[in-house]
């Protein structure tokens, strides 16, 4: 008899035009002492299921059928009954520790408040209990830090506080909704270890909601796969990941970048737009293809960048070098990866290469010309044409007020004002073809497209000036894993056909391994090491690289 | 998604969220219906009324001080009565309303162009220029707008000859009201620009090589228009009220071509002698006009602001 039983749960959202079925007849059960991974892509209904357990469905959503049975209680009989269990028998951990704590109350006050809401304890007892809890989740000097405010904790520590909040009333069920998505790899593994430890020690039933197959492989005992509101498959983690039965699970697993080997292309089972892949001959005809010269296209020399241009900031005091004496070269035609955690300066370097920021000191050479101190606009335009960038967030990187064709046409007309209208239309269509979008897309607005399609439009825009260097700043980190696989495949195809040089920036080591020939590892603005991809993954020389490689969640760990 | 392409413009509008929110809001429907009637009547008043209140030859002093038609002494041909010179109140009000609307719209467009221009450039370029512009708005905001308008009017009277003044009065008024309302637009558009300019689409345009002017006006401007239009609507009501206040104080449009404010001032003299309708109807008309615009503005703010959505 399992501890938590979800029977035939359905959640509907009645919208103006249609009813969205966020969950359809979902049956899930969780035992005590086990972690159930709930995995799926965005919009699959995994968070809806988590929220439905505690009746936290926002309007206009409604639980239309089904029951949630915790132990021997039907906790979803009415909305009042569940309030008693929320925070008491059921603990919750949310994605963003920044927003799930109240910034104007000390950590201690928040824990005591929660304890006293549910348990009849004196203030003194509640305080002792909360200090013990903070110790249990691994916060050092708990007595002292008890009176600190949330902003005095780092992201990882804050998530520990959230976990202690979730545990403070001795819950039997813990729901963790993407608990590590906002955190860096090294902190992610600590938090996951903590959740695993607590599950064992307290005999909790845990539902871990995540999109990350690596996290699932390393933590979950069993896994439930969801797709557009339906439960696709549920079973032992090892079984599901190694021998998936359903085609959706198969495609999901095959889209995950392997950490232990480099594959040439991801196997795509389901395609986003059911379009047959064809060669980009049309765009190639327009392309003045450069011979690969095997020389350095980009040389970065002793690059420094500090952000001290604040008028009121006291200079030279506590000032942080976002980029600290970084030098590297990118050969023409190769993919160079920059890896690092948040705040390591990788995006700052990208923005200096594309000339959005000026470096504080140091030089960047492109094709043997220094591009850091170009004064004349016409001179600058020559380089603008050759260096293009793809951004992380596909939603903010396209102007929502312009049609797709205008977005893609803008760079073309700018660099070739004399182009005729019909030629321009053809060019836009060819570009859309080359990123595997249908030509009809040209007349639509960006909001009509999904994240992956928007990223394709972004790529088409970047290709419109026929650049030699493409700077990709986390191009897939906002995308689902199956879409990521398609975009990465596309980038690889384009690079091969167009002889592009790519600077690929990411925090995601497996992705970088798939994409890059050489990799540089950044930490706190400093370049730790640069080496060939295979060497880096097999024999890392720097301590930090070793640590990163050790900590990254590996989907292959399931085989051990 | 595919069928979206084949829709006509009207069908697209019918499909939009704004249309649906409009249909579901009685306040929005009623206030815009009232506004439509007022706009229509005041701009086509020549075709709707047999009277020409500003042609002295057509007036008969015999009709002066006729009370509204439903009172004991009322005449059927003067629905809302007449004023001291025998002018029909209803058509005088509608003529006056036209002046008020023209001044209000012109003033708000003037301050919108000025404010958005300064706010957009300040937000985009930043630095010392931004500091100067924003301190200028701070200074401007410390001066009450009526005082500012009185000041402008005073200076204009000094500069323009007496004969010219009546002709120029309406332009002076537009300038005076416009100059006191622009800081709001500057602040809102600067704040919105600061948000927009850090978005990736602006970076992408910069990398492509698009010039600053084009980025500002082609890319950023359309994206900051929503909040600007919302305060523009509410500002319109304020501008109309400011116009009336100034005219009431006697520094606005001259009595020969009266606006609503002038009418209220003229009628005010008769209030204590019992001819209440001469000031009451223009006043109630002004209240309905400003109230409808404000209600419509509130509805727009709620609909266009995603943060206030339920």
Detailed description of the structure:
The complex is a heterodimer of chains A (560) and B (310). Chain A has 560 residues and is of the alpha/beta class. Chain A is built from 20 helices and 20 strands. Chain A has helices spanning 46-53, 79-85, 107-118, 123-136, 142-145, 155-167, 185-202, 213-219, 237-242, 247-255, 281-286, 346-353, 377-386, 404-415, 421-434, 451-463, 481-498, 509-515, 533-538, 543-551; strands at 4-14, 19-30, 34-40, 61-70, 73-74, 90-93, 173-177, 205-210, 222-227, 230-236, 296-306, 321-331, 335-339, 361-366, 369-370, 387-390, 469-473, 501-506, 518-523, 526-532. Chain A has a six-stranded mixed sheet with strand order 6-7-8-3-9-10, with helices on both faces. A six-stranded mixed sheet of chain A has the order 16-17-18-13-19-20, with helices on both faces. In chain A, strands 2-1-4-5 form a four-stranded antiparallel sheet, with helices on one face. In chain A, strand 7 (173-177), helix 7 and strand 8 form a beta-alpha-beta unit. In chain A, helix 4 packs across helix 6 (155-167), helix 6 packs parallel to helix 7 (185-202) and helix 10 (247-255) crosses helix 17 (481-498). Residues 272-276 of chain A have low confidence and may be disordered. With 310 residues, chain B is mainly α. Chain B is built from twelve helices and no strands. In chain B, helix 5 packs antiparallel against helix 10 (212-249) and helix 5 crosses helix 11. The longest helix of chain B has 38 residues, at 212-249. Chain B is globular and about 75 Å long. Classes of the chains: A alpha/beta (560), B mainly alpha (310). The interface between A and B is medium-sized, with 35 and 21 residues.
